């Protein structure tokens, strides 16, 4: 199978996903094999939400829209332009996927197949309905993918390379278990935002998307703020208030109530607005419905800290503060070339 055939297949998958990426699902009769797959995928969306209460239809649509925008011929060609993709011997790549947000492992899946390898997928039980169905669609639009995509719930066997994502504890297990295989092992990371006090209301409103999208469960979600001494949080709370309906979601509300009770019983200082809490804390990983913050003395000192802690950080959201920063509101809209942990998985797959 030539590279262009693989690209064409994923572009057609993007066309298929585009039908489901808006609040009103609209069938496009020009999409290949739509009569066979359209209604079935609507059912998979329903199953995904029923199985995992964090996967609301709104958040699933957001994820599908991101992939629909990425899976165009122009975007894929831009992504692949730096590489020479000429795999002469296909290898089997095992992917152990997380399940914190919908289709969170899709980029690894795409990278393996687009580079010319075969994929062996072990999904999280939290996100098991969407990708197998989309894989069947891929096999229909490009029959040469048949036999190159395998899903398993059993022990991984017979693979050459592994890409595994998990918690800090499971990552240590992965590193030991896969020590004899070429691998990319990912563990917990969190994203931070740096505020200077000069942000506009629009900047802070955009930041709220980085905080609340997917209920804050993604590694690209902002879980911590760095703010200057004596920072006034009034503008921040005003800018995020439009997210207040989130408290009507039972799973989120339960976490809010529990964490608030813990903080009150422990007599921790915090600020809250009825659906969200902020707490001064040096940690990077904050619980659901909570954002940690930390004061900084000088930009220079903070840059040094962020650099020394870079292995714990996925994204830095700021405005003209640091190199490779992410714009407010853009953390959950990564491009195909925005690699997790800044590890170029395509380059790794082509070189291994």
Automatic annotation (TrEMBL):
SUPFAM superfamilies linked to this entry: ALDH-like
Lineage start: Bacteria, Pseudomonadati, Bacteroidota, Flavobacteriia, Flavobacteriales
Q: Which domain of life is it from?
A: Bacteria
* UniProt-listed InterPro entries: Ald_DH/histidinol_DH, CoA_reduct_LuxC
Protein name according to UniProt = Acyl-CoA reductase
Q: Which UniProt keywords apply?
A: NADP
- Keyword NADP in record: yes
* Pfam families listed in its UniProt record: LuxC (PF05893)
């Amino acid at each position: 199978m030539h590279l262009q055939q693989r690209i064409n297949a994923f572009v057609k998958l993007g066309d298929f996903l585009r039908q489901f990426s808006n609040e009103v699902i609209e069938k496009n009769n020009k999409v290949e094999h739509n009569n066979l797959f359209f209604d079935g995928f609507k059912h998979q969306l329903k199953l995904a939400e029923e199985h995992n209460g964090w996967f609301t239809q709104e958040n699933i649509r957001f994820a599908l829209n991101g992939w629909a925008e990425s899976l165009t011929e122009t975007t894929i060609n831009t992504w692949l332009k730096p590489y020479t993709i000429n795999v002469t011997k296909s290898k089997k790549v095992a992917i152990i996927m997380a399940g914190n947000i919908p289709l969170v492992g899709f980029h690894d899946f795409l990278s393996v197949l687009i580079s010319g390898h075969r994929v062996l997928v072990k999904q999280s039980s939290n996100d098991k309905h969407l990708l197998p169905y989309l894989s069947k669609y891929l096999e229909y639009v490009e029959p040469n993918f048949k036999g190159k995509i395998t899903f398993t719930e059993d022990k991984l066997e017979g693979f050459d390379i592994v890409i595994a994502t998990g918690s800090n504890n499971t990552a240590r297990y992965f590193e030991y278990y896969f020590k004899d295989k070429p691998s990319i092992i990912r563990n917990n990371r969190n994203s931070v935002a740096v505020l200077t006090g000069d942000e506009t209301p629009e900047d802070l409103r955009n930041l709220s998307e980085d905080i609340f999208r997917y209920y804050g469960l993604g590694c690209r979600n902002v879980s911590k703020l760095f703010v200057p001494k004596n920072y006034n949080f009034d503008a921040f709370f005003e800018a995020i208030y439009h997210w207040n309906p989130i408290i009507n979601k039972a799973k989120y509300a339960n976490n809010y109530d529990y964490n608030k009770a813990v903080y009150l019983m422990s007599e921790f200082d915090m600020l809250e607005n009825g659906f969200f809490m902020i707490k001064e804390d040096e940690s990077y990983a904050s619980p659901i419905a909570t954002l940690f913050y930390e004061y900084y003395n000088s930009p220079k000192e903070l840059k040094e800290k962020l650099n020394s802690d870079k292995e714990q950080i996925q994204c830095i959201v700021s405005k003209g503060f640091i190199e490779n920063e992410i714009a407010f509101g853009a953390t959950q809209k990564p491009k195909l070339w925005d690699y997790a942990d800044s590890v170029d998985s395509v380059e790794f797959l082509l070189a291994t």
